[in-house]
Amino acid sequence: MMHVNRYFGDFWNKQDRRVQMTDSFGPVMQLGYIVEDIDKAALDWVERVGAGPFYRLDSIVLDQYSYRGTATQLELSLCFGYWNDVQIELVRPLSTTDSLYTRALRDCPGKLNHMATLVTDLEGVLNQHKLHDRIVQSGGMPQGQKFVYLDEYLPGAIHLELIQAPAATLQFFTMMKKVAANWQGWKPVRDIASIGQDFSELKAE
Asked: DSSP secondary-structure letter at 178?
């Protein structure tokens, strides 16, 4: 017992010390997975935990994409759905260009790849926390959204994605979440263009 008390005494003494901590980036709003078959992955989420519906974007070319400092063009297929308040993002790379996504698909398909949080001033956050040297990839969406991934920044070697999104994208997320909260299981995977109509029908009920 003496050895146990000594061990835990040392442990708790260490816990009493003040440690250097980083200001919170904000709540996790998204879990991201790189997958081979988006529809199958979406249905797995629907059937196992009731997430959805999922909205699929068959093709998007990222603006000013850079991977480990090298600029390149990258085309992706994306799918989004909500599991309660958390967005599930499913990504399938369509380009063979070397990228974080193609490597993840090759080395660990279907595994948790990144968690994301929203920021209002991406460059300000990077400067404040001196994070530029941790960026593994960065880019933007045609509608104005900007993002960076911090290389294996979270425990468990998970990337942290910081997203600066325009008002239209945030509104899109809100509509998707409200549709999900009232969803009864019909049509689990949908075209992303239908979100406006789905939300309008929800308001009309």
From this structure: H
CA 141-56-140 angle, 5° bins = 10
Beta pairing class for 54-61 and 63-67: unpaired
CATH assignment of 25-182? 3.10.180.10
pLDDT tens digits, 134-170:
999 999 998 899 999 999 999 999 999 999 999 999 9
Q: Any idea what DSSP says for residue 138? A: E
- Domain positions in the chain are 25-182
Dist. CA 116–CA 114, nearest whole Å? 7
What phi, psi does 123 have (nearest 5°)?
Answer: -65, -35
Helix segments in 37-85, DSSP class H = 38-49
Q: Write out pLDDT tens, residues 12-49.
A: 455 566 656 566 788 999 999 999 999 999 999 999 99
